[in-house]
Amino acid sequence: MEHSSEEESEISDSEIDEYKDKIYAQLRAGKLKVQYGEKTFRCPFCLGKKKQDYNGKDLMQHASGIGVAPKRKARVRASHLALAEFVKNDLASSLEPSLKLAIVECKPPKKEEEKFVWPWMGILVNVPTDLKCANSVQEREDMLRSQLSRFRPYRVIVKLDSNGQIDHSIIKFAEDWTGLEDALAFEKHFIVEKYSKTDWNKINCRKDDLYGWLARSDDYDSPGTIGEHLRNIGVLKKISDREREGTDRRVAHYKRQMEEKNERLQELELKNNQNAMKLDRMMNDKDRLVQEHNEKKEKNANENILLDLATLKHKKADEELTQLVKKHKQEKEDAFKRRYKLEEDLISKQNLEMELAQLRGKLEVMKHMGAEADTTSKEVDKISEELKEKDEQLDAMDSTNQALIIVERRTNDELEQAKKELIKGLQQMSVTRSTIGVKRMGILDEKAFLAACKKKAANDVSKKAANYDLEGESTLLLAKWEHEITQPDWHPFKVIDVNGHEKEIVQEDDEKLQALKEEAGQEARDVVVKALLEMNEYNPSGRYAVPVLWNFKENRRAPLDEAVDYMLKQWKLNRTKKTYFG
């Protein structure tokens, strides 16, 4: 697409500003002469006209008038606009002050804004012959699109005439402002190469290459296939219309965004209010939890103090129990030794008494035989001497035995006291299940007694019909018999001989027991008899319940040494636990 023609050609309206700048540069460079005297000027573009000379004011009016005349050609208007600008900017210093004011205030009338076909489109005519030989319209469009790829065409449409030959092509560009820039670059290329619309409209234009331009209102309104096609696929719009549409779209878009943001803001405000309420509740809960924590902490501190005191008490009780156990074992060993020695001394005393009896008998025999011989006298003296020694030994042994008996009694008293302390300690221990413990002998089994009363009442039809108060009456009856078994003047026992040994048993025909059997049944009577037998066995003189060491696993009485061994074993197992005496 290269051209070599240098002849003057007409320009389009869109090229006026560019051509005006070119002429203005030539005027300033002096290539075109305007001033011919101090106050004489000529228009370099109207040299063949009748009037040649102008003063400054007239030249300004001449140039401005032709520059805005709509019927003048674009090239003529552009030249005179350049002359008016030259007179205004470069010759104003040589004019009178009154003329300067006129020149400054002289303005050309406002031009009407150009309209373009939208979407932005370019027009191609004079398609080369080789393109006409393509096999299909699609191939022809692809070839043109590839040839014009630097202008980024969105689509190329080839229109054929009635003979199937290419009449013209429409180049569609993007609908946005980038597409307009590409379309203007497309048109400028053909203007620079002098293959524009102006060049195509010349009578003697060349037919050697493509001609192209940007579709405007004159193309849109023109008759023929080009105008018809443009009217079918596009509309006329001004740049300001597109700007206004873009502005309206942006305003609508921003308005939608503002509405969406306002709705979002309202949602956020609602969530913020909800979160604030949640935060308030959380802060209140936090304050409450902190207060509860502090109270619990203070309570735990007090409990720890009590626990420390209980631990010290427990430790002291453990130490006392250990000392008690050791003391008991030592006393038990000492008592066993003393008992063994007493038994030995008793045997020795019995032997000594036998020897004394024998010596006294022998001495009496000798005295009756008389003192006939010296040997007999000597034997009597010897026996008397031995008898005296034996008597002294017997007296010493009696004294020793008496002292041992006193110690034994004192030891028994201490063991009994130790037994009481052990019972007291077991009663105070916080142990619910234990093999060795304390059982009160001589008390009524409340659970068994009440159950027997309820069983008897359930079988009594008369009591059912009279709305009998079973709970109240059973409780009163239990309290009555708890009092009866403690009365010392009531002794419902008799003594019988069993294998040569005396044994006390309950009298079956006792009036009170018979009355109880009649009122509450045999099972209630058996509960009372059991309590009476226990009291008669463990505390017959006092007639009140007494605590005794008991082996609950084997249901028997536990000896003191068995209870002590059990306590010591439990202490060793639980010495690290925080179980303590109350």
Distance between the termini: 118 Å
Task: Please state the average pLDDT score.
Answer: 79
Secondary-structure content class: alpha+beta
Largest sheet: 4 strands, antiparallel
Proportion of residues in β-strands: 5-15%
- Global Rg: 72 Å
Estimated helix fraction: 55-70%
What best-fitting shape do the alpha-carbon axes yield?
A: rod-shaped
Strand order of the largest sheet: 5-6-4-7
Number of helices: 18
Low-confidence stretches: 1-7, 98-107
Structure overview:
62% of the residues lie in helices and 10% in strands. It has a four-stranded antiparallel beta sheet with strand order 5-6-4-7. The chain has 582 residues and is an alpha+beta fold. A hairpin with a 4-residue loop joins β12 and β13.
What secondary-structure arrangement, pairings included, does this model have?
Layout: H1 16-29, E1 41-42, E2 53-54, H2 56-67, H3 74-90, H4 97-105, E3 115-118, E4 121-125, H5 129-132, H6 137-147, E5 155-160, E6 166-172, H7 177-192, H8 197-201, E7 211-214, H9 217-220, H10 225-233, E8 235-238, H11 239-369, H12 374-428, E9 436-441, H13 446-458, H14 461-465, H15 470-484, E10 493-498, E11 501-506, H16 511-520, H17 522-538, E12 546-551, E13 556-557, H18 560-573
The gist of it:
By secondary structure, the protein is an alpha+beta fold.
Q: Which key phrases capture this entry?
A:
single chain; 582 residues; four-stranded antiparallel beta sheet; alpha+beta; 18 helices; 62% helix
